[in-house]
Known about the structure:
By secondary structure, the chain is mainly beta. The chain has one domain (11-334). It has helices spanning 126-132, 148-151, 295-303, 328-334, and strands at residues 11-13, 16-18, 40-41, 49-50, 69-80, 89-104, 107-118, 122-123, 141-142, 144-145, 159-165, 173-183, 221-225, 245-262, 267-286, 309-320. The strands form four sheets. It has an eight-stranded antiparallel β-barrel. The chain is elongated, with a radius of gyration of 21 Å. It starts with 10 loop residues before the first strand and ends with a helix. The model is unreliable at 1-47 and 61-65 (pLDDT under 50).
Amino acid sequence: MNASLKSRIALVGQGCTLAVAAVFAACSSSSEAPPVTSTPVPDAGPGGTPTIVGTGMACPEQMAAGDHYVATKVVAQVTWPQTLATAKGSDVLSIWLLTHYTVAGQAITGTVKTCGNQTPPITLTAAGSMAEGAPDGTLAKVQIAIPTSVWDAPGIPTTPITGTLGAFNVGSSFLINPAVTLDGLKQTSKWIDAANPWPSGYAGIDAADITDDDGDNAVGILAVPSAANGFYLPGTALDPSAPKADQLQVVLRTTLTLYGTSKSCTEGSGAATVSQLNNHVVGCRIVTTNAVCTPDQFGFIDANTTQYKATSGTYTTKVLPKGAAATCEDVIAALP
């Protein structure tokens, strides 16, 4: 299943607005680099993360005029455990973010918004494949995606972020502290606190906390299983005759930290720590009848959904020239 993360960011310093994660060193009111510091960045994790002042050029002030929006792409190595119907596995998961940052001195504030994700295909177990009606000796595969149109919906929330900028010249450090993003859940939900353990099943989430962020008149946000290229639609029971679902409604929690350096005045890269990639299925639609799934039906899918654990990750960023008019499509086009 998918998880998601999210980034917008606006950086505003003394008369200078920085352009984001990619541009950790986006502007300067002088051609001189700030003094080198070895002070650890606050809230940076075990042992502290060093603040780095780069040795590259000071970015021109005109790069910082007005608000700047940045595309961010996170690529994480993930693993997942076996369930009754899905086999364990490991692969790569990608997340796209739209960020808008504000910098005052070395302090970063802003918001982040998810713009897309690409999860790996999931191989089913022998039991799950049999329930899908796959030929004997063949393991069925399922591929689920959240459409880009969902992320551009007006109700999709943005997540506040904080961080630290090393300096305003190329090669300086950029840190975004751990930020929790919720999709399909109230921003006041207890799940906004990463310390609250994610429930093992959808029933552990209070129904009053679930929202219709994408505005499709269904709880959670829409996820669409593929029926192309040999993929199978998720079954609603471990029975070949059980109905299949062509739409899922999901809720997501993603916790993300970024730390890296600027590579130019418009690009940056570094390490991404994706400490939580939580999800639950809270509804579905039957493909043959368009009927809403019963709790038993979507509950079976939820019990077999992929619970990812990220083992490592990287990110890249790029300033978007469209500014506040930038969309999720622009993000994915900038960092395909």
